Amino acid sequence: MRESQIIFIAGPTASGKSAAALALASLRDGEIINADAMQIYRDLRIITARPTPEDESRAPHRLYGVLDGAEACSAGRWARMAADAVRQALARGKAAILVGGAGLYFKALEDGLSPIPDIPGEIRGKAKARRAAIGAAGFRAETLARDPKMAHLPEGDSQRLMRAWEVFEATGKPLSHFQGLPREPLIEGDAQKALIAPPRETLYANCDARAAQMFETGALEEVDALLARGLDPALPIMKTLGVPEIASFLRGERGREDALLALQQNTRRFSKRQMTWFRRQTTDWPRFESPKEAVAALSP
What we know:
Layout: E1 6-10, H1 17-28, E2 30-34, H2 53-58, E3 61-62, H3 75-91, E4 95-100, H4 103-111, H5 121-146, H6 158-171, H7 175-179, E5 192-196, H8 200-216, H9 219-228, H10 243-250, H11 256-281, E6 287-288, H12 291-298
Parallel strand pairs: 1-4, 1-5, 2-3, 2-4, 5-6
Helix pairs in contact: 1-12, 3-4, 5-6, 8-11, 9-10, 10-11
């Protein structure tokens, strides 16, 4: 495999990709850059399986726990942050090892971003207030009137609907207009890539074990603290895998065992959706059944 100083390691949840990145960071003198949509938030280290303090002491880790849960992080925002982290790592003479399960994040970084203007904070607040005033259905209808090409977005996809509403409000042009413009590249040079795709039986067993471990290692306390903040239920962090299931237990809506079974089932389903996306969108990525195989292929 051709060697590059930029490395992408992707895979579904519980595939062992973080362990692969840590091993490779030692072999390639690298810095690990988060490409997971939820590990970027500081509130949920256990729920999102963020690297432990011990792991972080073994290699530099970037973009882990850097945002507050009250913020919404889009693929575009992450890509700009990640591109900056890549440039800094390369400037220090280090390999930049990006690892995560957010396929759209890798795609945004590699393909570039549509040149969408920055949206002022007051307009973001206006969008949120408008949705609260007219309801989810009314807000979707109003957004589609501004940008009919957003019709594929369901009513519950508040984050992307608000994004479309905000762009039109700020610029007078629909979001789809900007999406149709040439994309701006974010990083230079090709990346080495590895998709870790364990056999289904192995992956599902890992998912079940991870969910069970959450209940024994502080996840309940994490979710309890998050709920106490009273954050908007539409925020990405409130929809993080594990939060709704544990919240229902904490509220007394289901028993501990039922909550665990629901989390295990939803984790397996999530990993299946991730694998479906990767099969369709990363056809040119080398695939490996285990972290060990991926590390061997990416080693110098």
